[in-house]
Amino acid sequence: MEKVIHRADTRGHADHGWLNTYHTFSFAGYHNPERVHFGVLRVLNDDTVAPSMGFGRHPHDNMEIISIPTFGDLEHKDSMGNTQVIRQGDVQVMSAGTGVEHSEKNKNQDKGVKFFQIWVYPSERNIAPRYDQKYFSDAEKHNKLTTIVSPLGTKDDGVQIHQDAWFSLGNLDKGFQTKYPLHKSDNGIYAFVIEGSITINGEKLNRRDGMGITNFAELDITADEKTELLLMEVPMLK
Model pTM? Predict the structure, then answer.
């Protein structure tokens, strides 16, 4: 087993007033040549957007963009004609493909909105853009690792993307133990602690810590306290 650990306080950070953001991997004004990506996982941003503020209309192409809100209401509009609001419990994906424009705005006037913005390189370039969104209840994630993202065309749960990647989210009670077997033997896992603290294969991770793991078959997971855990199984770049 090989691993790389990114502690919460080593992430890139920018406070633009309307946006307070932390970058696990190089993004915008933060560049660390040792932290550009983990396999096809390119971006993991931890964003807080001020009331009534947001990202204006802007373009993307050839990227799978996943949004996971944890607080507040985020309004999405795009050039495909979608207008949706995503809230805590929702998972949204936009396959940018040949090109799409979109905007994201905090729909609330009295509170911030918090969400994770995650980018994954697609397995195929220049596909037709698509949008998907799904809600997962707290009960579905309690003491289990629930699949929230899966490859397009599979029968697995979750929103689907153009990549052999599986994301799982769990709300785990203190002392809960479980295992995670890989879907594909040559994939890696990036584990990210949203809240709480957890021990994975002997390594303790705290709130907002991340760890990339390769060359293993199964994870041993123990929640050291009540924990919200995000696992991202992704192909490794060759």
Answer: 0.97
